[in-house]
Amino acid sequence: MTTWQEFSEVAPKIAAIFHRRHTATGNLCFLATLRSDGAPRISPMEPRIFEGQLWLGGMPGTTKFLDLARDPRFCLHTATVDTDVSDGDAKLWGTVYDVQDLDLHARYAENLFQETGFDLRGQRFSPFYAADLTSASAVEVGGGHMDVTIWRPGEPERVVRKH
Q: PANTHER family from the xrefs (predicted)?
């Protein structure tokens, strides 16, 4: 299992690009899951990093969370609003697992309220998905080339330059 904290230590370039794009869009990302018929589904979401972990939380009963309950694999893509990708772009792949820890839910809700004013305090989150990262990539464009940074567990980041 690779937590966000572990990932950001071994893949700092990709983590920095993800963080920059995640922040620039008000935490908006796009989540890819697999529907029950095996077709892909893309859903907007606002993942959060809290206590060293990447959390994929949201409204219970939505199709994206039903997908993850059936098949925990996902891809999370930062929202790209610039066709030149001048600020970079990042994708994270992994699986999720549901964490039912009421003390954690309370800390998360308090942090969410302090940072955003959105009040979920006193609620239990079900599901409450933590991300186990299995690979990642990021793109940066400039100077007449594109750099693709790639990470897999047990390996350092590597950059592939495309002209």
A: HEME OXYGENASE HI_0854-RELATED
**pLDDT per residue as tens digits for the range 4-45:** 999 999 999 999 999 999 999 999 999 999 999 999 999 999
Tokens of 122: 């006193």
Looking at residue 122, its pLDDT comes to 94
Q: Which two tokens stand for residue 71?
A: 């098949």
Phi-psi region of 5 (alpha: psi -120 to 50; beta: other; left: phi over 0): alpha
DSSP three-state, residue 88: coil
| CB distance 112 to 118 below 8 Å | yes
Name the CA dihedral angle for 24, 20, 81, 69, rounded to a multiple of 10 degrees. -90
Token pair for 55: 């959390």
Q: Which residue carries 């922040």 as its tokens?
A: 23
Mean pLDDT of the chain: 95
State the pTM of this model. Answer: 0.94
How close are the terminal C-alpha atoms of the chain, in Å? Answer: 35
Domain boundaries, the chain: 4-162
Is the Cα dihedral 155, 16, 18, 4 positive or negative? positive
**What is the C-alpha to C-alpha distance for residues 136 and 7, in angstroms, rounded to an integer?**
9
Q: Note the CATH architecture for domain 4-162.
A: Roll (2.30)
What is the Cα–Cα distance from 84 to 71, expressed in whole angstroms? 34
